Amino acid sequence: MDFENKLISGLFIKRYKRFFVDIKINSQIITAHCPNTGSMYGLLKRGNKVWVSKSNNPNRKLKYTLEIIEDQKVKVGVNTHSTNKIVHHALKNNLIKELKNSIEIKPETKFGKNTRFDFLIINKDFKAFVEVKNVTLSRNKKKAEFPDAVTSRGLKHINELISANKKNYKIFILYLVQREDCNYFSIAKDIDADYAKALTKAVKNNLNILCYDCKFSSKGIKLNKKIKINI
Q1: What is the DSSP letter of 115?
Q2: Where does residue 2 rank: exposed (0-12), middle (13-18), buried (19+ CB within 10 A)?
Q3: What is the DSSP letter of 220?
Q4: How far apart are CA 13 and CA 161, in angstroms?
Q5: What is the pLDDT of residues 77-131, one digit of tens each?
Q6: Nearest Cα to 117, choosing from 103, 102, 107?
Q7: Do residues 136 and 78 touch, judged by C-beta distance below 8 A?
Q8: Using CA atoms, how far apart are residues 135 and 38, in angstroms rounded to an integer?
Q9: How many alpha carbons lie under 13 Å from residue 63 in its C-beta half-sphere?
Q10: What is the mean pLDDT of residues 213-229?
Q11: CA–CA separation, 126 vs 101, rounded Å?
Q12: Cα(40)–Cα(135) distance, rounded to whole angstroms?
């Protein structure tokens, strides 16, 4: 996924009202949109270096969007709207081994009455639903974790994936770690025990779990390498 425009660097000041962050750029303080609804645990430290994008849309009230936070010299992608773009690029370019050579890739596909999965993958051997989760949390060196807050939406997706499997779809959750410093991934059971239990149940019902990290450049963020899963 390439950035639409060159990112602008600044310093983090504060987050408030969930979707607003104040950023200092040179001597000016601007208010940017925060597209991440999670807690962003451990990242929201005053003075942390950040990067924001500026919209070309003249009608947008908030011209800037928070894209990346640097914490302890590690870049972390916090824009959850970028997550599916990164994975879509990877799917189209056969960068995900388990889902290579797809005949058709359908984003945001409806299942049942009230659910949309991030991707429906169709190839010659199977149809699969893929749900993607953005991962930013790392409380211990080299370990990425999900979730960073209780996630009722994530719990719903697990249960709906189990239902899809009963209708002969293969089912996947892909945890996209938007950072470069982690070697393995695990579930933050202490943060959301119900999510952890549901995921264990889903694995027994044929859920496939994938985890990849990302590579950052001045041009954009791309899926990088598969990392180990410890659940």
Answers
A1: E
A2: exposed
A3: B
A4: 39
A5: 999 999 999 999 999 999 999 998 889 999 999 998 889 999 999 998 899 999 9
A6: 107
A7: yes
A8: 10
A9: 9
A10: 95
A11: 12
A12: 9
Q: What is the number of other CB atoms lying within 10 angstroms of the CB of residue 11?
A: 15
- DSSP SS3 for 142: coil
Q: What is the C-alpha separation between 103 and 202, in angstroms, rounded?
A: 26
H helical segments located in the chain: 80-92, 152-165, 193-204
Whether a cis peptide bond, with omega within 30° of 0, leads into 147 is: yes
Q: How far apart, in Å, are the Cα atoms of 146 and each of 31, 43, 137? A: 28, 15, 7
Q: What are phi and psi of 184, to 5 degrees?
A: -150, 165
Sequence letter at residue 132: V
User: Residue 41 and residue 138: Cα distance in Å, rounded?
Assistant: 9
Helices (H), strands (E): how many in the chain?
Answer: 3, 16
Structure tokens at 186: 């695990």
Residues 6+ away with beta carbon under 8 Å from 139: 41, 42, 145, 188
36: left (phi over 0), alpha (psi -120 to 50) or beta: beta
Length of the chain: 231
Contact 139, 158 (CB under 8 A): no
Q: Which residues contact 42 (CB under 8 A, 6 or more apart)?
A: 71, 137, 138, 139
Look up tokens 């925060």; give the residue. 34
For the chain, helix, strand, coil in percent to 5 are 20, 45, 35
Q: Is the pTM of this model over 0.90?
A: yes
Secondary element (H or E) of residue 185: strand 184-187
Tokens of 217: 């450049």
